[in-house]
Amino acid sequence: MARRLGSRRRNQNQSPCLLYSSAAGDPAPYGSATLRRLSTGQLRRVALPDPPLRGRFVVGSSHGWLATADERSDLLLVNPLTGAQIALPSPLTIKNVRGRYSTDGALQGFDLMELNLETQDCDAKTYDKDLPLDEGRFYFYVRVAMSGDPSSSAGNNNSCVVVILHMPRNHVSFARVGDTRWTWIDMDWRCNDYTDVFYDDSDGLFYAVVDTGDVHTIDLNGTSPVVKEILRPITSEVSCYNKYIVRAPWGDILQIWRYDYDKAANCKDGRDERRTLRLEVYTVDVAEQKLTEITDLQDHVLFIGFNTPLFVPAKDDYPMLTPNCVYATEDSMSHIYCSKFGPHQLAVFNMTDGTCTDLFQDDRNSWLQWPLPIWIRPSFSQDRYLMWMFKANTS
Length: 395
What we know:
It holds the Pfam family Beta-prop_KIB1-4. The chain is mostly beta strands. Helix content is 7%, strand content 40%. The protein has a domain at 239-395. It is globular and about 60 Å long.
């Protein structure tokens, strides 16, 4: 049996928190964050290590950790409850990234090269030249997924693996905690155009969805990556570029297709916002090689965005959440690039009646700020600590 990458049992029913920067005018320290627990509505401020949160791009969350990119485009994993922080390999070690330097040797920016899966190398053609230091992160980290708690296994053969999707065509690279370089997965000509990826504890594999609907498994347990196509392309025309993939609590692999209206697509009005028009959820049928649309989440709530998608049971465990709804944060790279400081939608899509509403009708400050709000679910031990924090905050 393949060794599982950082696999740990955890409570799948814990309520997530929304993490965001302090609202405009809030005297909170520049490096602090706010945790908002949806199950109770309580708020708690937490201090984060340098560099300050408001200078970071928060591009992922999993196992109670955030994936953040600082203003030099370095990727840092940070635990908002403990303050622990782990640096990942330099973006200069990504296969198609080149540094641009001043006359005295200081790094000033990046060039992003085209990648060729047939030659397994970079093309001479440059995809984007002279990216400033703080803009490289929007190209290098389209999605970030983790195989486990990055603090629990550093320095051994079962270390947490971090997978990134990166431009120009959403290629995939990975690194184990403690590695010094990113490794590009280049053994298959189909290894690009991914829109989302997650790690499945049940079989020790990463699952990735392509913009045409096909699904690949990525096995990083051995000495070399193994990529398998388990669902063939569903369509040759891409009508939805925002596709997510997740394992449901009842065992099915699901795809979520998010359709948006983005008035800021031409970057002429940075204050216009992206709005979710509708969501479609599909069961992946590997045996029949098809997708089957569903409208019932079996009384669960699904949370999507830059976080690894996650479910919680609403009917019994968290009755204050609306069952069969999808809670979605902003994660459109094109909209973020055009409208960094918002507004950014926090939406609730009801699968039963097809309606889409704002999560906080009377509180837009929390999502007008940078970095973008993100869902995060603490690990079991962290959740007990978080309960203590909220209790202490109200005493």
